[in-house]
Amino acid sequence: MITIENVSKSYGNKKSLQDVSLTIETGEIYGLLGANGAGKSTLLSILATISRASSGTITMNGLELSKNMKHVREMIGYVPQDIALWEQETVKENLVLWSKFARDKVTEKQLYDLCGMVQLQEKWHEKVSSLSGGMKRKLNIAVALIHNPDILLMDEPTVGIDIQSKFEINQSIRDLASRGKTVVYTTHDMSEILFLCDKIGILQEGNLQFSGTLEDARNSAIAQGVSPQSDEELLYYLFGNQGDGSCGLLKK
Ligand SMILES: Nc1ncnc2c1ncn2[C@@H]1O[C@H](COP(=O)(O)OP(=O)(O)OP(=O)(O)O)[C@@H](O)[C@H]1O
């Protein structure tokens, strides 16, 4: 479970997050959504202990992040937007190198199986520099899973990945969540939102404008006199640009 309370982050005068509070339950896939620059990566990088909040409190599985960095790092797997791999090493060598950072020993068989989850077993002995952009992204995902983390923080992990593989990766993420992993996921892909996310949070200029299930969003829309005919229409409505940059649901 992740509890985020009144988290703000400023870069100089720029407020990238403003008083964000939300709770993500264990085993939930939480989609963090919003326009470019809304603050999604900023929040994920704070959760991943890469950067620090200017104010506010974050608790992960009962541990307050600022006081338990080491333990929190052991429980999270982070897929950054930027790919973090050794280009001149093979797929296998990359996984072995990353596995050295894991607290428990990870066998080569476990790494090979992990490679299967992201459809890369055929590339086991190939240099990363020879992989396509999408394949590198898949390997980036595998790296985050090496130490079997309880919490997965995924920042647009499937950008550039083909539809078939994306579907398989999404299935795997669903499977991980059903086994109790908590997932925070950012994406701009509507089909992923609908397939993956149990709840969504919409950030807008650093403010959390909405947090809840699609059902919650639909009920709010209906209460405001709008009846979206499909989930896609509901999302269009949620994100609808009302001319002043505000979210459709909240403008009404
Ligand atoms: N290191 C930094 N220094 C200064 N400003 C930053 C820094 N990192 C992010 N920002 C600013 O914070 C705001 C939020 O950026 P962030 O990367 O979190 O957005 P995002 O929602 O992840 O966008 P995208 O969908 O494009 O990935 C932006 O205005 C961005 O310019």
UniProtKB/TrEMBL annotation:
<protein>
    <submittedName>
        <fullName>ABC transporter ATP-binding protein</fullName>
    </submittedName>
</protein>
<feature type="domain" description="ABC transporter">
    <location>
        <begin position="2"/>
        <end position="230"/>
    </location>
</feature>
<dbReference type="Pfam" id="PF00005">
    <property type="entry name" value="ABC_tran"/>
</dbReference>
<dbReference type="GO" id="GO:0016887">
    <property type="term" value="F:ATP hydrolysis activity"/>
</dbReference>
<dbReference type="GO" id="GO:0005524">
    <property type="term" value="F:ATP binding"/>
</dbReference>
<comment type="similarity">
    <text>Belongs to the ABC transporter superfamily.</text>
</comment>
<dbReference type="InterPro" id="IPR017871">
    <property type="entry name" value="ABC_transporter-like_CS"/>
</dbReference>
<dbReference type="InterPro" id="IPR027417">
    <property type="entry name" value="P-loop_NTPase"/>
</dbReference>
<dbReference type="InterPro" id="IPR003439">
    <property type="entry name" value="ABC_transporter-like_ATP-bd"/>
</dbReference>
<keyword id="KW-0813">Transport</keyword>
<dbReference type="InterPro" id="IPR003593">
    <property type="entry name" value="AAA+_ATPase"/>
</dbReference>
<dbReference type="InterPro" id="IPR050763">
    <property type="entry name" value="ABC_transporter_ATP-binding"/>
</dbReference>
<keyword id="KW-0547">Nucleotide-binding</keyword>
<keyword id="KW-0067">ATP-binding</keyword>
